[in-house]
Amino acid sequence: NRHSSFGDQVQALLELGRAELDTEYGTLSEIRGEECVFKFVDANDQFIQPGDVVPVSATNCEIVASTERTLVLGNIEQDAPEETDRVSFTEWGISCYIGSPVFVEDEVYGTFCFYDTEPRADQFSEWEETLVDLMSGWVSHELQRQQVNDRLQAQNEQLEQFASIVSHDLRSPLDVAQGRLKLAREECDNEHLDAV
What we know:
six-stranded antiparallel beta sheet
């Protein structure tokens, strides 16, 4: 629906992705330096809430952000044993993960990903990977569009402010000039006054 808000559309994508991929969690996260901020969350429990902040190093999102590629781990213990020391595995029990980078102006904004505490019996399929890629691509496009719109709005506001100031600054001297011109016309008749 074109009239739905960005947030509603992201929420719908996360819900759809979770249903298609059969995962407990779906999130859009923003990476700010060493922090990972959960912007949107779709889950059956309250374990993760929008606005929650965790260290990037605790998550598999760090790999996605650093490689700038989709990460597919149907069974983290088997597929990436070197990643089992992350807090997401040791404390949160995240055992499978699929996530894609989200870009704004060619920079990694964050990740769009799905994960579960149960490992998958089989690997995520190519179609499932493509689905996550398409979803993250749409999110990237929308975030980029929002940023451009915000920038244009800010520029328009600056121009309006500038025009208002210039108009105010010009009005006073123009009023004075018109008053003096009127007085000059009363005192003499000169073709130069018409030009003025």
